[in-house]
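Recall the central idea of this unit: under ordinary conditions, the amino acid sequence of a chain determines the structure it adopts. In this exercise we apply that idea directly, starting from the sequence alone.
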Amino acid sequence: IDTPIRTLGHSKASIMEPTPVAPSAAGAPAAAPAAAAPTANPPPYTWSQTLRDVTVLFLVPAGTRAKFVQCEFRANHLRFALSGQHPIIDAPLHAEVIPGECFWQMEDKGAGREVTLTLTKRNQQNWWACVCQGDPLIDTSKIEPENSKLSDLDSETRAMVEKMMFDQQQKARGLPTSEEQHKQDILKKFMAEHPEMDFSQAKIQ
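Accordingly, the structure predicted from this sequence is:
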């Protein structure tokens, strides 16, 4: 389901400002900054996500050609660099992706160029709190679908998205999911109807 999420795509709470790579005197790609330490500056990219995939944007110097870009997608690891330079990212991912469905593209952006990475999630029912492990985290419990986007979905799909959102928020708060709550309600009803029975050892599976 590719419903864009306002909280992750465009809010100050979730978007990381990119650090442009300075152009070299020779016009070739300049040295890219090393990947940020876990507690250092924000990562040198912006990102957004849907339930299906994660989009990562990098700013690179004007004149950067596709042959200068080195991008390696692995199930649990991402490496992105410009030829002959330190990797901009070389770190384990927050969660697993499907390498064969990941890709990148590049286009002109202002005075430079922009490289867009699309990471297809293996688990397409969860939100990511970050792109790479050690990066600043966002609060996934605050993610809410845009009403205008949800209204475009059929009733069954919309109900499924809203249920997943509710369950994500409940898990983040340490509360029962909708399915767990349903089981608890059934047990409570059964207990009320059979007061003569001992439910002290009853467990919800």
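Confidence is low (pLDDT under 50) at residues 1-40.
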